[in-house]
Amino acid sequence: MSILSPIQTMSTVLTQHPFWKNLPSQFFPILEEHATYQDFRAKEKMFSKGQNADYFYLIIEGRVTIETPFVPGEGVISVQHVGAGEPLGWSWFFPPHKWHFTARAVEPTRCIVFDAARLRQLADADPAFGYQLAMRVGTLVTERLQATRSRLLNICEVV
């Protein structure tokens, strides 16, 4: 028995997800066609540093930790947590399309998952969609890098 809530229609979830806020409505049918749900158990690894970044995740429910690889003297460090209403992953958007961190579900987590190669193809084929996607991913990268920098500075101050 799953402790995750019943699955809503993809259309409803996509249009309500904050990542797509103010996205022109003509793009939602395209996104819906290429979106699937995926559930992860608590402590389940979603992806690992160095693997191909083949998917883009929007967290619907649950929480995920983003971890560094092993740091001498520190071990694995959780640099950030992301949860419901947040996107997960940006490495899929930029060559060489390899994950820079590892992601692990902290608790049961439900995501909408997109095939990254397909999203990139759609962005290439439709510059208006590509612009919308690039602006959102660019904002995500900026936010995550600032959060990671802050977290790592806090760790260094403690040491």
Provide structural commentary.
The chain has a single domain, classed as Sandwich (Jelly Rolls), CATH 2.60.120. It is built from four helices and eight strands. 35% of the residues lie in helices and 25% in strands. It is of the alpha+beta class. The termini are far apart. The model has no long low-confidence stretch (mean pLDDT 89). It has helices spanning 10-16, 28-33, 116-125, 127-158, and strands at residues 35-40, 45-47, 55-61, 63-67, 78-83, 87-88, 102-105, 109-115.
Topology, pairings included?
Blueprint: H1 10-16, H2 28-33, E1 35-40, E2 45-47, E3 55-61, E4 63-67, E5 78-83, E6 87-88, E7 102-105, E8 109-115, H3 116-125, H4 127-158
Antiparallel strand pairs: 1-8, 2-7, 3-6, 3-8, 4-5, 4-7
Helix pairs in contact: 3-4
How would you characterize the largest beta sheet? 4 strands, antiparallel
Second-tier CATH architecture: Sandwich
Q: Globular, elongated, flat, extended or rod-shaped: what is the shape?
A: globular
**CATH homologous superfamily descriptor:** Jelly Rolls
The total beta strand count reads 8
What is the CATH topology descriptor? Jelly Rolls
Point out poorly predicted stretches.
none
Rg, rounded, reads 16 Å
Total tally of structural domains: 1
Strand order across the largest sheet = 1-8-3-6
Termini distance? 43 Å
> Helix count?
4
* Strand percent estimate: 25-35%
CATH class: Mainly Beta
Mean pLDDT: 89
Structural class: alpha+beta
| Helix fraction by DSSP (H/I, runs of at least 4) | 25-40%
SSE succession: HHEEEEEEEEHH
